[in-house]
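Teaching assistant here, posting this on the class forum so everyone can see the example we discussed in section. The complex has two components, and the goal was to see what a joint structure prediction looks like when all of them are supplied at once.
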Amino acid sequence: MGKVIAGAAISLDGFINDANGDVSRLYPDFAEFRESELIQGLIKTVGAVVMGHRAYDMGEGDFTGYEYQVPIFILVHTVPEKVAKGENDKMTFTFVTDGIESAIQQAQIAAGDKDVVVVGGRIPLNSALMLGWWTNFSLI
Amino acid sequence: MPVLLEDGLRFFEHLNSSQIKLEKLNVMAMPGGGTHINFRVVK
């Protein structure tokens, strides 16, 4: 079984967004960030993604060309009626309503020997850490 | 990232962090002046 990796871009004083919820100062050049050695390396080793609903909402309904072309497990309270665009035979969306533990377990099965990456805001990341699920985490 | 936001969502909060042990694995320079630090959570 692979690792469970979580990460975030964080300011020096410890915040993952500003008082208005804006993350742009933490990702000054998102295109360049996606091309970085870090992300390109992760793309090769990640076999499934667990995503918080806010991160899913940030996709604004279209995940065409998303960097992780793998099964994605999205934490939601209720399954949305309309699913974002971009699914294909590699990247599929599964909505998980019974919590992060269930989402990580499902993602680990989907990932096989590859790693699971947890993306999203503070809640999925911290609750996963508290549950002892993380094996690795990274800060930028 | 080398910015100070002064307010917002704190990444580490309400964690019983004294029970969490971390081991630094590697450090990598990132675009935009960021520094990526990869940790292993010691079980």
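For the discussion questions: The interface with chain B takes residues 8-19, 21, 25-29, 32-33, 35-38, 121-122, 125-126, 129-130, 132, 134-140 of chain A (CB under 8 Å). The first strand of chain A starts at residue 4 and ends at 8. Think about how each of these relates to the inputs above.
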